[in-house]
């Protein structure tokens, strides 16, 4: 069994930056993809960014040019760099880590971390 640990959230001023990290421990498969999701009060869950094993990335339109998803040197962490933050980015952020062993898919979820953008 594996575990994901998210870190880096908190309070930030509008226009500021914040870096979230998702670290995987004890996962058993081959990395396939990691997505960052967010859920704001009264809104549907959104896919913020997605990175695949070949390095391909995708972003929610509203965060393009501001957010960057990347994998760490050890290949067991995925970061979300968030720049020029606005109050609309306030949400709980979750990472989802997908690995495969043969045809078997293994999903791991982070605990969720609060990001609050406010002056």
Give an overview in words.
By secondary structure, the chain is mainly β. About 0% of the residues lie in helices and about 60% in strands. It has no helices and eleven strands. The chain has strands spanning about 5, 10, 20-25, 30-40, 45-50, 55-60, 65-70, 75-80, 90-100, 105-110, 115. The strands form two sheets. Strands 2, 4, 5, 6, 9, 10 and 11 form a seven-stranded mixed β-sheet that branches. The protein has a four-stranded antiparallel β-sheet with strand order 1-3-8-7, with no helix packed on it. Strand 4 and strand 5 form a beta hairpin. The protein is elongated.
Brief rundown of the structure:
Helices cover 0% and strands 58% of the residues.
Characterize the largest beta sheet: strand count, sense, and whether it forms a barrel.
Answer: 7 strands, mixed
Portion of residues in beta strands equals over 45%
Count of β-strands: 11
- Name the helix and strand elements from N-terminus to C-terminus, one letter apiece: EEEEEEEEEEE
What structural keywords apply?
seven-stranded mixed sheet, mainly beta, 119 residues, four-stranded antiparallel sheet
List the helices and strands and how they pair.
Layout: E1 3-7, E2 10-12, E3 18-25, E4 30-39, E5 46-52, E6 57-59, E7 67-71, E8 77-82, E9 91-101, E10 104-109, E11 113-117
Parallel strand pairs: 2-11
Antiparallel strand pairs: 1-3, 3-8, 4-5, 4-9, 5-6, 7-8, 9-10, 9-11
